[in-house]
Design goal:
Layout lengths: L1 E7 L4 E21 L7 E24 L2 E14 L8 H4 L10 E2 L6 E10 L10 E2 L2 E2 L4 E10 L3 E2 L17 E2 L3 E15 L6 E11 L29 H5 L4 H12 L10 E9 L1
Antiparallel strand pairs: 1-2, 2-3, 3-4, 4-5, 4-6, 6-9, 7-8, 9-12, 10-11, 12-13, 13-14
Length: 279
Amino acid sequence: YELGFQQKLTNSSSLKIAAYYREQRDMAQAIRILGSFPVDYFTTGNIDFGTSKGLSISYDLRRTGNVSLRLNYTLAYAYGTGSSPGQQMNLLRTDQPNLRILMPLNWDQRHKINANLDYRFADGNAYNGPRLFGKDILANAGANFSVITGSGYPYSRTRGVGEDGLKGSINGSRLPWTTNIKMRADKEFNFNAKGSGRQYSINVHLDVDNLLNTKNIYGVYSATGDAFDDGYLTAPKMQQNIASQLDEQSYRMYYYFSMLGTGHYSGPRTVRLGVSLNF
């Protein structure tokens, strides 16, 4: 179900507010059959359900002078008894019952903000930018900024390395907020092909991903809640095993390096320069 309304604020801007509710039933999930002969066994059944509800607020400013702007904020809640058909399997293997409790689903992101700002100069009589030696140096040029920020997704925290069980509830912990800013600056050059009367253009653009070089964290080790340390090297129960290695110092060093390449964090700032021909 979705309810909403849109209000025109000015001739070039509008505000939209929408609320939604969605319900899912009879989703597949792992279950354990007790009392079967000769042994208990695992299978799947249509026993999961979940709900998603939220509120979305959008503001749209169409091109006004040099600027256009779009803003969107979403407040969402996604709860259910399981995020995937096999999520309960690890619990069932520890002799837990077929639990049917509501928990945050894997995609439950409480807050999300999208913003897109475009600043651009026209050409000809509509040009209002700087001039150099009588030339409209920024005609058909502009920059676009896209900002995506949101609160962290849930994950299940475990007690520690070498220890069994959860520290808290399923999906009871949260990743930190993440923010990514993308920029695209471009300028278009228009030409007339001699003799043919055809027009073509060359667009020179600069694309920058992760403009502020932010180290966003997209995943953590469940035992520590840290993106760079899984807790193995400092866990008391693991020290004897580490000390028994052929070269303890080398073992610790290589193990540490292995934890840095997990993809738990975003890539660094990336810059691409390109040229496109349109005809």
